[in-house]
Amino acid sequence: MGADALVEAGVDRVRAFFGLPLPEAHRKALAAYLALCAGAAPGFRWTPAENLHITIRFLGQVDRSRAEGIAGGVEAIRAAAFDLALGSIGSFRRGKLARVVWLGLDEGVEDIARLVAIVDAQSVAAGFEAEARPFHAHLTLARARAREGALLPDLPPPPRTEAWRAGELVLYRSHLGRGGSVYEPLRVIRLS
Q1: Burial label, 130 (beta-carbon count in 10 A; 0-12, 13-18, 19+)
Q2: For residue 17, what are the β-bridge partners?
Q3: Inside any domain, residue 41
Q4: Structural domain contains residue 10
Q5: Residue 1 resides in a domain
Q6: Which residues are CB-neighbours of 139 under 8 A, at least 6 positions away?
Q7: Residues 13, 64: contact at Cβ < 8 Å?
Q8: This prediction's pTM
Q9: Buried/exposed code over 17-41 (b: 16+ C-beta within 10 A; e: otherwise)
């Protein structure tokens, strides 16, 4: 059944995920850094600054009402706000080849793990499989263009940014396109 037929049948399918947005000042500081890295490592697709976020849980293609139900369950728990600070650069690798380039966290790792556990529990309650891999809090900067990965040259150190208060969790819809993904907030959950 195609997307138009699903909408006519009353099913609104979305590609969705939960994430923590970055403050605008951090996006601006990282925009110049990402441009510098893109010139140094063209074997990677560098994330546009407007798409920067910390992923909490990727849902994939799902009925929008199901994703909204998970968001409602998370909201009802009234998770606490917490402080986050970006750290140093790292990568997920397969041997010598890097597949994902990221910034880790210097502050907020335990707090974000608690939020992940809440979102994961609500996702499992909605019929999703529990996440099999342990959560590694990070801000994705780039993905290798080649499926197997790419050699990652030495990159300049990332800009230092101040810690910030993570006060909202966002349920995003991801629109895939030729120019890359565009993220649309579907629901904002205030953290108390």
Answers
A1: exposed
A2: 58, 172
A3: yes
A4: no
A5: no
A6: 22, 52, 53, 54, 86, 102, 103, 105
A7: yes
A8: 0.90
A9: bbbbbbeeebbebbeebbeebeeeb
- Structural domain span for residue 68: 15-190
In a domain? residue 2: no
How many CB atoms lie under 10 A from the CB of residue 128?
Answer: 16
Tally of domains in the chain: 1
Give the integer Cα–Cα distance in Å for 29 and 26.
5
CATH code for the domain in which residue 40 is found: 3.90.1140.10
Reading the block at residue 112, the tokens are 């974000």
User: What tens digit of pLDDT does each residue of 30-50 get?
Assistant: 999 999 999 999 999 999 999
Dist. CA 40–CA 34, nearest whole Å: 10
Taking CA atoms, 121 is separated from 46, 56, 144, in Å, by 31, 12, 31
Q: What is the DSSP letter of 40?
A: H
Residue 10 has pLDDT above 70, yes or no: no
Tell me how far apart the alpha carbons of residues 76 and 57 are, in angstroms, rounded to a whole number: 18
